[in-house]
Write a structure and sequence with these properties.
about 250 residues, mainly alpha, three-stranded antiparallel sheet, 3 strands, about 70% helix
Amino acid sequence: MSYSVGQVAGFAGVTVRTLHHYDGIGLLVPSGRSHAGHRRYSDADLDRLQQILFYRELGFPLDEVAVLLDDPDADPRAHLRRQHELLTARIEKLRKMAAAVEHAMEARKMGIDLTPEERFEVFGDKDPEQYAEEAEERWGGTEAYAESQRRAASYTKEDWKRVQAEVDDWQERYTALVAAGGQPSGEAAMDLAEEHRQHVSKWYFEVPYEMHTCFAEMYVSDERFKAYYDSMRPGLAEHLREAILANAARHTA
């Protein structure tokens, strides 16, 4: 079997001009010619073209491709081994690139566009994206979630520092209150619960009292949230729940 230049161009997804160029530089010289002098390519020519396109895809210049294919000591198996090694290396590189892009996508989804060093500086060993996927699954279609994304996307490193400083300060004062035996229904605890609500409203989205009470229930029903608050001091999650409920009651009564 032999094939015209147009047929080969169609098979390989290249232009006729490209095949003419390969012929002109001696990289792929067709094995035959028609009676009218037109190029005719054999199956062996197609095999060589496949090798050329493979190495080109991996970024090899044409002169290096010619050296590889015309190596007198190389056989088809040697080319296959080389291609396998190159493909394996390319796959690993692409895998790492894909992982980096995924991390960047998650960061942008959270609106946290910080370098790893900046994230550690702002959040310490806390992971700001820990619950990002679940948050999107739970509330992705809500206006509150959309509003939090709009706000967070505009925050700078300094903004995130202020957010975290407020969180740290609130946690320190609430932990001290619980340690001192303050009651959830006491004014001090309710004031801190109100501060908690206002912090979320200020930085992420408006939190009505009814929504805040839903958060309060989640802080004790979801083991991860409960563990987070109880890590500050045992029993703090339940204490905060009661304080939030008491605070909502005094403002909505």
